[in-house]
Amino acid sequence: MNEEKPSAGSQIGARNLWLMVMGVLVLAFVILGFGFWLYQDNGTYLLDLSRPGYQPEVKTPSANDDWSFSPSGELKTTDYENFTRHFNDKLNKIRDTNAFSEEALSDESLGI
Question: How far is 25 from 13, CA to CA, in rounded Å?
Answer without folding.
Answer: 18
